[in-house]
Specification:
This protein is an alpha/beta fold. Helices cover about 40% and strands about 20% of the residues. It folds into two domains: about 140 residues, 3-Layer(aba) Sandwich (D-Maltodextrin-Binding Protein, domain 2), CATH 3.40.190.10; about 90 residues, Periplasmic binding protein-like II (D-Maltodextrin-Binding Protein, domain 2), CATH 3.40.190.10. The strands form five sheets. It has a five-stranded mixed β-sheet with strand order 10-9-11-8-12, sandwiched between helices. The radius of gyration is 24 Å and the shape is elongated.
């Protein structure tokens, strides 16, 4: 009886292993179901952006998308051999659009963070910057370092949902944090003297200071690390690996340097 049970048990294990092998997901199955395969088969790469972030992504006088991120996306589509479709949407809608499959990628000056990486995946950085501060010449006349802004009488303007929003709440808890839907509103608050500071990336802060030289000052030494990455959906190794190879290629052949020179040359020096 014991011998019979042992034989039956062995037969069951063998059958289970056999069925398990038959039902295992093969590399071909992974490839067929990958976003990379779908993009190539579809013949179109759909990228989400908020076209209000000069010089990364914005629209020209003809209403066409232009900017550094647009060129990165366009070059990627060319390498893939597919058409590029850019979907313009509000910043706060980009990650939901990615996770719901409405877009393939986000290439929109999005910072790769540990918190965001819980719900989406990121490529290696293709651009590195940091948060800087646009200061009110009137309201923040005595401010020389950002740490001075962590005080009850200080007002900090941030764009909703950005890393600046998160950083301001964590590192400047004593200050009043006012949130706005776009960076222009934040700049106007500072220029009008209603806010002490506006936190945003280095290039944008330099631009806003140049546009408002009489009413603002700028601290252009970054106080955070902001790696801009390409965002993609969770669990797609094939697409992630392609993006890594794409970025390595355009870094090594000079394409990325050429795009940076095209869009950022002399911005911080003016």
């Amino acid at each position: 009886m014991i011998r019979f049970i042992r034989i039956a048990s062995l037969a069951f294990v063998a059958l289970t292993m056999c069925c398990g092998t038959a039902l295992a997901v093969t590399p071909f199955d992974v490839y067929e179901g990958s976003a990379l395969r779908k993009i190539v088969t579809r013949g179109k790469l759909v990228v989400g952006m908020e076209l209000k972030f000069w010089p990364f992504e914005y629209v020209d006088e003809q209403g066409k998308p232009v900017g550094f991120d647009v060129d990165v996306a366009r070059t990627l589509a060319e390498k893939l051999g597919v058409e590029l479709e850019i979907k313009d949407m509000e910043w706060t809608g980009l990650i939901p659009a990615l996770t719901s499959g409405k877009i393939d990628l986000i290439i929109s000056g999005i910072t790769g963070t540990l918190e965001r990486a819980k719900s989406i995946s990121f490529s290696s950085p293709y651009f590195t910057t940091g948060l800087c501060a646009l200061l009110s010449a009137k309201k923040a006349a005595g401010v020389t370092i950002v740490e001075q802004l962590n005080a009850p009488d200080r007002v900090i303007a941030v764009k909703t949902g950005t890393t600046a929003d998160l950083v301001a709440a964590k590192r400047f808890p004593r200050a009043t944090i006012n949130r706005y839907q776009d960076e222009t509103a934040c700049t106007q608050e500072v220029a009008a003297g209603r806010a002490d500071a506006f936190f945003y990336d280095q290039i944008s802060i330099a631009k806003h200071h140049r546009q408002n030289p009489e009413t603002t000052r700028a601290i252009l030494t970054p106080f955070t690390y902001e790696p801009f990455c390409i965002a993609l959906g969770k669990g797609d190794f094939d697409l992630w690996q392609y993006l890594e190879m794409y970025l390595a290629t355009i870094k090594s052949d000079g394409t990325l340097d050429a795009l940076q020179a095209k869009h950022f040359k002399d911005i911080l020096d003016k």
